[in-house]
Amino acid sequence: IRFAYELRKQGMTYKMIERKTGISKRTQQRRFKSI
Questions:
Q1: Against a cut of 0.90, is the pTM above it?
Q2: Which long-range contacts (CB under 8 A, 24 or more apart) does 31-34 make?
Q3: Where are the domains of the chain?
Q4: CA 10 to CA 29: how far, in whole Å?
Q5: Rounded to 5°, angle at Cα 9 from 8 and 14
Q6: What pLDDT score was predicted for residue 16?
Q7: Taking Cα atoms as reference points, which of 27, 26, 4 lies closest to residue 16?
Q8: Which domain of life is it from (predicted)?
Q9: Which of 1, 6, 17, 23 has the fewest CB atoms within 10 Å around its CB?
Q10: What is the pLDDT of residues 4-31, one digit of tens each?
């Protein structure tokens, strides 16, 4: 998830990250709140 967070900070969209990591958009948003 930390890898996905780094991608997010680089400006990638949730959809791109979802395709790369297999983590759903909703899960990403929930996890990122706790970081």
A1: no
A2: 31/1, 31/4, 31/5, 32/5, 32/8
A3: 2-33
A4: 15
A5: 15
A6: 94
A7: 4
A8: Bacteria
A9: 6
A10: 889 899 999 999 999 999 999 999 999 9
The rounded distance, in Å, linking the Cα atoms of 10 and 28 is: 15
Higher pLDDT, 19 or 32: 19
Q: Whose structure tokens read 């979802």?
A: 18
With a CB cutoff of 8 Å and minimum separation 6, the contacts of 4 are: 17, 20, 21, 23, 28, 31
11 residue type, one letter: G
pLDDT at 10: 95
What DSSP element (H or E) covers 29? helix 25-33
